[in-house]
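Record 1 of the preview.
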Amino acid sequence: MSSVTLLVIGLTAFLLGYLVYSRYLARRIYRLDPDFVTPAHQFQDGVDFVPTNRHVLFGHHFTSVAGAAPIVGPAIAVIWGWLPAVLWVVLGTIFGGAVHDFGTLWISTRHKATSIGTLARTIVGERARILFLLIIFFLLLLVNAVFAVVIANLFIANPGSVMPIWGNLAVAVVVGLLIYRTRLGIFWPSIGALLTLYVMIWLGQYVPLSLPDLFGFAPSAAQLQAAGGDVAAAQAAAHTDGVRAGWVVILFGYAFVASILPVWLMLQPRDYVNGHQLFVALGIIFLGVLVTRPPVIAPAINTQLPPDAPSWFPLLFITIACGAISGFHGLVASGTSSKQLNKETDARYIGYGGAIGEGTLALTSIIATTAGFAVFAGVDGWHAHYGTWARASAGATSAFVNGVGVLAEGIGIPHAVATVFAAVVVISFAATTMDTGVRLQRYIVTELGEHYDLPLIRNRWVATTLATVSCAVLALGIDRGAGGMRLWPLFGTTNQLTGALSLLVVTLFLLRLRRPIWLTAIPMAFLLVMTTWAMVLNLIRYYTDSQALLLGVGAAVFVLELWLVFEAIAAVRRAIAARRGPSAVPG
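->
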């Protein structure tokens, strides 16, 4: 299979989806109103509610929802073959994920920028709100913990990326001040910031920075056993654990500060610059594919799966979450983006367009890992890398980074610079998602405090502390962070469950408005069935493998899901009965 053909087919499908399908949704289903007063104007406070230029907001939304997940998920899923992964990414994005993101942004805007969890109370019922908020809390816990471990591992593997990443934060603050405190506009400060970032990426290969072991862990029994009694090797593994743990603590300290600051000071400008960075990265990858034309060496459908690999059906639909359809996107859309939406008509560009952008990133991850990385490692090396499920999961980001390095090298960029560049791209988006996730988790903690009348946790400082500490404990609690990626299947099921339930809320609202519901109901039903099926299989596996933490968290989420589904069934019956009478909901 030609990588060029694969790229052209995918991009053409995405373009048609945005030009045709999203326009139909905007006009006939969501019926966007250019004169509607958005919450950003109605509740403008300069901290969370800030009317924002749609291109700047696109940068925030796009990079917040993208993160590392649309890279990691597809890079793991190609173990089943590139064809199932491509079909789910392309069709899932156009008819599921983009519909979900667009719908959650629209419905939140129509309800004073209320989060999708709180909307469950209005649309489904009071108990549904608490159930949904608890599921969302678990999801954000997993997102933040997993991404912190991913970033820490990338810092360890790519010390040249450390200086560009942290330097970019200082540059983002300067950009924020220039945009909002001067009349300079947004274009030139963002271009200057991007150029500064690339200078730091170039310097990063000459000034690699590593964190010392801040914890001094002793080798564990498992590490001694894995090293075959080699004490030096076990001590080296323990040293890596200490370095990783140090990075995790530093990252959550950063996330605490970033989630407290006003959105205009760091969140918006950093995300806007990262949005430009992603477009440049995509351009380099596309050009690299067109110039080098690497063949897709991986099988279309892998008929020789390793013994530890689960069946692709239904696990594919939770392994590739972000990049096809993702519940986390609804949390961003209804948590931060709806508070910054300048005009309701911008929702199509930001919601549907942002999902298309992420689907494009997922498509490039598939090409980089099945063509670029295959050239880097060779056919035998590729099959060795994907020789076990555990190896494929642990090495997903390295496969992407090295694959991009090959494609970039094909257009004249030195491999060392290209790998640092690719690592910075992954880390930048993972960090963006992480600090947005902590901010969202603060919102959830505050809402729970309001519901149960607990004034202390309604305080944003206390709520943010609870959010960051709980995530850090989870990240470090699984083999000192070394086993953090074992949370990925649990993240996938919880994430997809949240997406299905968010689509359910949108569908019920459309039902009350007496509008067509099939375009949201069909992906909702499909996702709910696949997620429930996958969750049952995972729970059985966790029980068999004696993974108590994953079994406990997974079982708790599963119980909440079933309860919420029963609440939703009752709400559907009420909505159908009400639909037969006079409509009481303004359209």
